[in-house]
TrEMBL record, chain B:
Organism: Candidatus Competibacter phosphatis
Gene3D superfamilies noted in UniProt: 3.10.20.740, 3.30.70.20
Protein name: NADH-quinone oxidoreductase subunit G
Keyword Iron-sulfur annotated: yes
The keyword Metal-binding is annotated on this UniProt entry: yes
């Protein structure tokens, strides 16, 4: 740790730079941790004092987010992305290799405090994994050679800025472009269009377009904007949900990397329509590498009159955008949890109603939309609603960006008109031998080959964009178990059925996966899943059992071939439990074993 | 004639006033809906999910759903009893609840609601977490093994006592009730057994010292009548076996 005086001064400077605002708490804690590598009690207490908050509140926030540490971590903190697509690319082997090279276990910090290695939820690099984060910055395309080099860099205490640039290279891999990604967009065109047409006419175009929330929920964007526009109150907000946490999704990352102007423009015109002066982008912590470029883009837009005071010279048009960085919490993708997090709190979903359109950020009317929705809105402003609605199906207008990963030759971003079949997508991406896909991420649908004729749209298979392919060499249950672990890690812990149910489900799937399950356990999974679907407080818990329930129907053989023939098996390994007693008593006689098989195995050297 | 607005709960008309929830209106009408994190003296929380009811066919928490005219609400149906049983069982395996060895047995709301919904066994695999017991305070003891994270003590201490003694920290299964002192010990706080926070716990997490087993087993609050007739332990005066100070 730094000298006491310097330390206190550092914290004070950071808090001051954030205007001493408690809504900036999460941002402040992130920056303090950047300086100290973790958040010691003294730092938390000082932050609390400077902000006028109680220390327990600050500690509560620090303890909620995965990327904030209240215990010491290495100066180089390496977290492997542990989505199933990273596993398909061999991340576990690399993880063990790196830990071995550093002489530490998974999740541990080396005694000299220089390095720690662990795992984290999907970092959104599924098309260029295995991926990891080092001090929050994205590493892609890991292999042994890269890890060997990383070991040298870490042991040599080489600052990240001097690491080879190619380690951090993130490519966009746009494989198919349609109206959103394909057509040229001139900066300012959408903002000019809304100024020319006026907010009402813009809303009309949005109604005509039929645009629905592209995060996956599919709420009509025009209805949302209108509700917020009509909500009483002078102060309103626009929030862009760039907390792209659904494993297997990375299309928002590509939009923010290559099409940030389009997204910012969509937010700006939303501000004009609903009467907001301030917008926020809630960028997931895993996309920290984008932050600098995004801030530069915002600055350029201010300088060219597209953002800030008197946009395009109109004194009544004031709108600015600020970026908040998340800190590793999937639940913050839920809009009310995201708002809580934006306010500097821990991200527990609110009780709804009231909805954000009337009671959002700081209880003011707020529109929260996904990155892709704002980008589409900007295009609609320029090209018109009918143009957009000419694509897609009756209930799903326009196009959808899909993030393709897993077992296919050409992973990356594919833009299709809504209504495209799964089969067509599989053909285009070079998935030759698919036995199934996970659509819309772990919270979505597990789809087997017999359903590949289904269409991707709100009427059939709704999705936020994640599309993970499993070929016939894969064990579907590896994926399902990985997903159940994901939900255990990401449950916020607020409500009983999610907090406890996610762990119970993970344990049941693990029991079957490791060959200890019986038919009764499958029935148990179904019952538990049904409870979670209706009883949980928010969408996270309600959708958490989906991969299990779907795969029980779609891939029954993946479970059944592992079942024991007995009617009941205990949840723990009886023989392993007895082994401890045998060792303590020194017994190896037949009476100390459950059955002959265990005895024979036990007698083996 | 101006008729007071009402909704239908299990076939019965339940009148309500503006701002009431299904839970508060039902309670006022003398209809019991099982609950744990709800206490009429505090803002609804909606976390335990025990008070699930079916509102026009959709499962929702009664404590956070605003009452509205024309709603058809179902509560005492087997489908919901099964749901509630499942949630109670989850609470039992999440912590370490050893009723026969607990001082609160018989006057415990968790136990009484479990009986009410027909829970006979925990069913799920026990987690057997390791939680400490904090006996640092001269008058009270906290057994964290029994905490169900209802946040009632957190709310009471913060909103009524003005002491902010408790908080919930951590995420997911690591969420914990903590005491807001650097040492984490209750003895280092200004907590008193006269605090509201000492009267609201629906389980045996917060216990008053030196007063164990004053009422014999068999004569306790829920020993002879079900919770639906007796009400919450926090609402019953101490002289009648509850926790509310006389």
């Amino acid at each position: 740790m730094a000298e006491p005086m310097t330390f206190a001064q550092t914290v004070r400077d950071i808090v001051r730079r954030h205007g001493g605002l408690s809504t900036r708490l999460l941002q402040i804690l992130r920056e303090v941790q950047d300086h100290l590598t973790w958040l010691p009690s003294e730092a938390l207490e000082q932050v609390a004092e400077e902000l006028g908050l109680s220390p327990d509140k600050v500690r509560g926030v620090a303890k909620f987010y995965s990327f904030l540490y209240t215990d010491p971590r290495g100066s180089y903190d390496i977290l492997f992305s542990d989505n199933i697509t990273d596993r398909m690319l061999g991340n576990r082997e690399l993880l063990h290799y790196l830990c071995e090279r550093f002489g530490i276990g998974i999740g541990e910090t080396r005694a000299d405090g220089v390095v720690s290695v662990g795992t984290t939820s999907c970092t959104g690099m599924c098309d260029q994994g295995p991926a990891a984060l080092v001090n929050g910055y994205t590493l892609t395309r890991l292999d042994r050679a890269r890890l060997d080099r990383i070991v040298e860099l870490v042991n040599g205490r080489i600052p990240l800025e001097q690491w080879p640039r190619e380690f951090f290279e993130v490519t966009s891999n746009i494989r198919r472009a349609d109206i959103l990604l394909g057509r040229h967009f001139a900066d300012g065109a959408a903002v000019r269009a809304v100024l020319r047409r006026g907010p009402e006419a813009m809303l009309d175009e949005l109604v005509k377009s039929g645009l629905r929330g592209q995060g996956g929920a599919g709420y009509k964007s025009a209805a949302k904007w209108m509700a917020c526009r009509n909500a009483p109150g002078e102060v309103k907000y626009v929030v862009c949900n760039a907390d792209e946490g659904e494993p297997g999704t990375f299309k928002d990352r590509v939009l923010m990397q290559d099409f940030a102007d389009l997204v910012f423009e969509g937010m700006t015109l939303c501000g004009r329509v609903i009467g907001a002066r301030q917008g926020f982008v809630y960028l997931r912590g895993e996309y920290r590498y984008l932050l600098k470029a995004l801030r530069e883009t915002l600055q350029r837009r201010r300088e060219t009159g597209l953002l800030g005071e008197a946009i395009l010279g109109d004194p009544s048009f004031n709108f600015d955008i600020d970026i908040h960085l998340g800190a590793g919490a999937y639940v913050c993708g839920e809009e009310s949890a995201l708002i809580e997090s934006l306010e500097g709190k821990h991200g527990v979903p609110r009780i709804r109603p009231p909805f954000p359109t009337t009671h959002g950020y700081l209880n003011r009317p707020t529109v929260v939309n996904n990155v892709e929705t704002f980008a589409a809105a900007a295009k609609i402003a320029v090209e018109g609603g009918e143009w957009f609605a000419s694509r897609g199906t009756a209930e799903s207008k326009g196009t959808k960006l899909l993030s393709l990963s897993g077992d296919c030759e050409r992973p990356g971003i594919y833009e299709y008109p809504f209504g495209v079949t799964v089969q067509r997508v599989l053909e285009d991406c070079g998935a030759r031998d698919a036995q199934g896909i996970q659509m819309a991420g772990p919270a979505g649908h597990t789809v087997s080959a017999k359903q590949f004729g289904r269409r991707i749209c709100f009427e059939d298979l709704a999705t936020g964009g994640s599309f993970m392919v499993f070929d016939r060499s894969r064990d579907i249950l590896d994926g399902i178990r990985n997903f159940t672990q994901f939900f255990v890690h990401e449950s916020c812990g607020f409500c009983t059925p999610c907090r406890v149910g996610t762990s119970l489900m993970r344990d049941l799937v693990t029991k079957v996966h490791t060959g200890h399950g019986t038919r009764q356990d499958l029935e148990e999974m179904r019952k538990l899943g049904r409870i979670m679907q209706v009883a949980c407080h928010c969408g996270l818990g309600q959708t958490a059992p989906n991969p299990v329930l779907d795969s029980l129907d779609e891939f029954p053989e993946a479970y059944e071939r592992r079942l024991r023939s007995t009617a009941y098996e205990p949840a723990f390994d009886l023989n392993a439990a007895l082994e401890e007693a045998r060792q303590l008593t020194g017994r190896r006689d037949p009476g100390a074993y459950l059955n002959e098989r265990d005895l024979l195995l036990g007698a083996m050297p | 004639m101006n008729e007071q607005p009402h909704f239908i709960l299990d076939g019965r008309r339940v009148p309500f006033e503006d701002g009431q929830t299904l839970m508060t209106a039902a309670l006022e009408a003398g209809v019991y809906i099982p609950h744990l994190c709800f206490n009429p003296e505090f803002t609804p929380h909606g976390s335990c999910r025990v008070c699930l009811v079916k509102v026009n066919g959709r499962v929702q928490a009664a404590c956070t759903t605003p009452a509205a005219a024309g709603l058809t609400v179902q509560s005492e149906i087997e489908e919901l009893r099964e749901l509630r049983r499942g949630i109670l069982q989850m609470l039992f395996v999440e912590g370490n609840h050893v009723c026969p060895a607990c001082e609160k047995s018989g006057a415990c709301q968790l136990q009484a609601v479990a009986y009410y919904v027909g829970m006979l066994a925990p069913h799920y695999t026990h987690f057997y977490p390791r939680h400490p017991v904090d006996a640092s305070h001269p008058e009270a003891v906290i057994d964290f093994n029994r905490c169900i994270l209802c946040e009632l003590c957190v709310r009471a201490s913060r909103d009524v006592d003005g002491k902010n003694v408790f908080a919930i920290q951590g995420r997911g299964l690591q969420a914990r009730l903590v005491v807001n002192t650097p040492s984490g010990q209750l003895g280092a706080t200004s907590f008193s057994i006269d605090d509201k926070a000492a009267q609201v716990c629906p389980t045996g997490t917060i216990l008053i010292k030196h007063r164990g087993y004053e009422t014999p087993i068999g004569q306790r609050l829920y020993d002879r009548k079900p919770i639906s007739m007796v009400g919450d332990v926090a609402q019953v005066p101490e002289s009648q076996g509850g926790r509310r100070h006389d």
